[in-house]
Model the fold of this input.
Amino acid sequence: MDWKRKILWVLLLLTSTPIHLIYNSAVFTSMSTQDYGVIVVPKNYSENDSLVNDVLSEDAFRDFVGF
Done:
């Protein structure tokens, strides 16, 4: 290879490496983890019991939990 081609390859290597590092870090940081909630209830809890005091809170709770 002549020296012009070698210089072009070196410039391509030097300019593409930071671009790939920035792109990969942006992709990896935007990936989310699985999110889940934990609810602690007493042992004597039955399906008819309510975990909240009023109806509006119960509806919001059921929407959030998904049942």
The helical segments are 3-30, 55-65.
